[in-house]
TrEMBL record:
<dbReference type="Pfam" id="PF03551">
    <property type="entry name" value="PadR"/>
</dbReference>
<feature type="domain" description="Transcription regulator PadR N-terminal">
    <location>
        <begin position="8"/>
        <end position="81"/>
    </location>
</feature>
<protein>
    <submittedName>
        <fullName>Transcriptional regulator PadR-like family protein</fullName>
    </submittedName>
</protein>
<dbReference type="InterPro" id="IPR052509">
    <property type="entry name" value="Metal_resp_DNA-bind_regulator"/>
</dbReference>
<dbReference type="InterPro" id="IPR036390">
    <property type="entry name" value="WH_DNA-bd_sf"/>
</dbReference>
<dbReference type="InterPro" id="IPR036388">
    <property type="entry name" value="WH-like_DNA-bd_sf"/>
</dbReference>
<dbReference type="InterPro" id="IPR005149">
    <property type="entry name" value="Tscrpt_reg_PadR_N"/>
</dbReference>
Length: 106
């Protein structure tokens, strides 16, 4: 799973968000390293919807513009859980190797 996909799913894990809310949450989650462009975000949202990982939640009108909210589906939660476990396993392996090369100070 690519990092932007992981971050979008993570942004939706605690509840529905609209596009700009997802962009803001991804920026926070990534410590400012990832800034999604609008085109990139909506392409990803369309793909994740087609894959059955997320779905539209609701729409609301704000200042004459429609905001569409998205939510994580059960399949999306499972994919996020699996990817989190995979990343944890890789991180644990990397940390073990780093400790072998650079022992922690006493």
């Amino acid at each position: 799973m690519r990092e932007p996909t992981f971050l979008i799913l993570t942004a939706l894990a605690d509840g529905p968000r609209h596009g700009y809310g997802i962009v803001q949450e991804v920026r926070v989650l990534s410590g400012g390293r990832t800034s999604l462009l609008t085109g990139t975000l909506y392409t990803a949202l369309d793909r994740l919807t087609a894959e059955g990982l997320i779905e539209p939640d609701r729409e609301e009108e704000v200042d004459g513009r429609v905001r569409r909210y998205y939510r994580l589906r059960t399949e999306g939660l499972a994919a996020l859980t699996d990817e989190t476990a995979r990343l944890r396993q890789l991180t644990t392996a990397a940390e073990a190797r780093l400790r072998a090369v650079r022992p922690e100070p006493a």
